[in-house]
Amino acid sequence: MAVHVPPTCSMADSIMSRAATMEIPINSNGDSRALPEDDGLEQAAKSQWSLAEKVGSSGETRDLQQVMVSGPNLNETSIVSGGYGGTAEGIIPTSSIKGPNMHQGGPAEEATRGVAVEKLDFMRKWGMNTYKCTKQMISERFGRGSRTVDLELEAQIEVLRDTKRKYENVLRLARALTNHFYSMVQTQHALGDTFADLSQKSPELRDEFGYNAETQKLLCKNGETLLGAINFFVSSINTLVNKTMEDTLLTIKKYEDARLEYDAYRADLEELNLGPRDAVTMARIDVAQQQYQVQKDKYERLRSDVTIKLKFLEENKVKVMHKQLLLFHNAISAYFAGNQQQLEQTLQQFNIKLKPPGEDKPSWLEEQ
Predict the structure, then answer these.
(1) What is the pTM of this model?
(2) Do the Cβ atoms of 224 and 185 come closer than 8 Å?
(3) Is there a contact between 5 and 55 (Cβ–Cβ < 8 Å)?
(4) What residues are paired with 93 via a beta bridge?
(5) Distance from C-alpha of 166 to C-alpha of 334, rounded to nearest angstrom
(6) Is the pLDDT of residue 302 over 90?
(7) Given this model, what pLDDT does residue 108 score?
(8) What is the mean pLDDT of residues 212-223?
(9) Which residues pair with 26 in a beta bridge?
(10) Coil/strand/helix, residue 276
């Protein structure tokens, strides 16, 4: 048996149209008066809506499911920026909007975080080490802290520093002698050219100007030979002082820094050993013991390096200075004795080659 059900939309439309045309009377107090027909209208609406619900509930459920399945995807919903009638340029896809916690860090972010942690750890260790060393240095300066002293090694280091100061003075004086002697050789060269020119222009004094010109040229030649020997002497002393000795002193500086660190960690360990023996302190003592052992090994290793370098430096210094002092003596003696042959033999003995005139100036390729 078929039952005809009026469309729910027509019922709703009729009810809404009637409600829209109703008049609501207002009394003198401003209160609305309930009319009898209002109760009839409300009862009719309830009965019609209940009947529509019973018949169309199953259909509405299916329609709702279809809307949920075929409805718009929230990720594809667009937000319109702008007012009514805006262009397509104002549409922003919501799929491109992500929250701050939706992005997961990749390998690059993890690597950056690791580097930052390493830097912080390095700065922490550096700060603690600097604090301990500064505390130890101040304690030693005011006589309140103890320091490790190797008397024999300290004496050798002081001798080296004194020797370096004296050799630096020798180097300074040798360079001054080279500059003055070079000026004298240049003056002799100019004087010889002047004498030769006057010999050509003064017939009555031709012979006198002539042999004086030859003498100055001979002195100039011997002076250039002596300059070659002195320059070799200066170069060798400079290498000994500013390279060999300086390298040994650099190792000594590292040794002294290691000694300060060793004493700082030793004092820290001794201070912890004098304190209470609870669990926290024992853990700190174990860490301090390990750090102390590391600094001790470093200190002993550098002390051994300094001892070896001082020994080799002394042997090298004696060998180099024996050769250079002999060269300097023979060259100076031969020059002022006027023995040109002995002066040239001295240079050959020490394998010194003189540079031709004008070779001191670098070529255009070397200047580039």
Answers:
(1) 0.61
(2) yes
(3) yes
(4) 78
(5) 27
(6) yes
(7) 77
(8) 91
(9) 32
(10) coil
